[in-house]
């Protein structure tokens, strides 16, 4: 009987993706992400007070340092989410698949993702738009929590998040991925604090 050899698939975009992580904490949080991040090149911007003071805008330095075609960024307080069965969710892989799949920003398809296996466009969807356009940003959200400002969150504690196609929205780069050519979409203005002496 021949032995079966398990072939480990090459991670998507392995040589084309940098992972930018801004942090003011120790690096222990990376351990939970090891199975997903280890094949990739990490750019960790740790407490870069010369860029911004103790906030995630220091990720912009990581954006500038990156030489890869794609960038994924994740905050140091993001935990690996679990699906309803308790299995870990590979958020990085989901972002990469989103980037590699066309977007449909000009016309909403009621089946949501017409490019997933087994799905299609609904009747009436214009044939001229079915090719889609390159996805500029894969935007992560807080798990089941809308990214409200504090007062709104207090008055709507039970509301859950959703988003629509082709809509403008405030971007929070807690988890996000994009092609480097589109980095201006994710680039956050660096906050500089000046104090009078």
From TrEMBL:
Pfam families: RGP
One GO-annotated biological process of the protein: UDP-L-arabinose metabolic process
SUPFAM superfamilies: Nucleotide-diphospho-sugar transferases
Main location: Golgi
Compartment(s) where it occurs, according to its Swiss-Prot or TrEMBL record: Golgi apparatus
UniProt keyword list: Cell wall biogenesis/degradation, Golgi apparatus
Gene Ontology molecular function: UDP-arabinopyranose mutase activity
GO CC terms in record: cytosol; Golgi apparatus
Sequence similarity: Belongs to the RGP family.
Protein name: Uncharacterized protein
